[in-house]
Design a protein that fits this description.
Length: about 190
């Protein structure tokens, strides 16, 4: 089975994440997309994150009606901070019959050369890249690489940061979040402070 790994802190998961994940599952050769909830992205401050369990629960709630989308807590059990290369090795050992690919935004492709052991990742895994609006110069080194697959997915510019900030301000962000996730956030009073 061909699995696309869509990593994120999902703090919170929103409709933009679902649009991209579902598009990859339906309009590429991937059989499933696993939304890998990252406990700690080395490039983000941990203090801004909701508890791992709550973020995983929101991903479960958001994906339960999408048979090709699966939440994954694989990184919860690995040493932190999490590095994608370590997670990939672990997944290959645990699921030897699956073929794993990465899903990332075009903005992440620009900084991919800063990832730990990025050469090893590129040597063994395809990377599915979805478009993002950006003013930066494109990294042609990766864009033309044979393992990089540019997917003509919708451009979605919704951020979890925007959602958190607006919940704190008392704004209505419900259209940006799956209903069950919004109810979970509202019930638990998340992001209010």
């Amino acid at each position: 089975m061909k699995i696309g790994l869509y990593f994120g802190t999902f703090n919170p998961i929103h409709v933009g994440h679902l649009i991209i994940a579902n598009h990859m599952a339906e309009h590429s050769d991937l059989d499933q997309v696993w939304l890998v909830v990252t406990p700690h992205n080395p490039l983000k401050k941990k203090s801004t994150l909701l508890d791992d369990y709550h973020r995983l629960q929101m991903v479960y709630l958001a994906t339960e009606d999408y048979p090709k989308l699966k939440p994954s807590d694989i990184e919860f059990k690995l040493p932190q901070p999490n590095y994608t290369v370590t997670t990939l090795v672990h997944l290959e050992e645990k699921y030897p019959h699956h073929q794993f690919s990465l899903i990332m935004g075009e903005d992440n492709l620009k900084s991919f050369h800063k990832w730990k052991n990025y050469e090893a990742i590129l040597a063994h895994h395809e990377i599915y890249v979805y478009p993002r609006i950006s003013s930066e110069v494109e990294n042609l080194e990766f864009k033309n690489h044979p393992k990089i697959r540019l997917i003509d997915a919708p451009v979605v510019e919704i951020s979890s940061t925007f959602i958190r900030e607006n919940i704190k301000l008392g704004k209505n962000v419900r259209p940006l979040i799956p209903t069950k996730v919004w109810e979970y956030i509202d019930h638990n009073l998340f992001y209010k402070k």
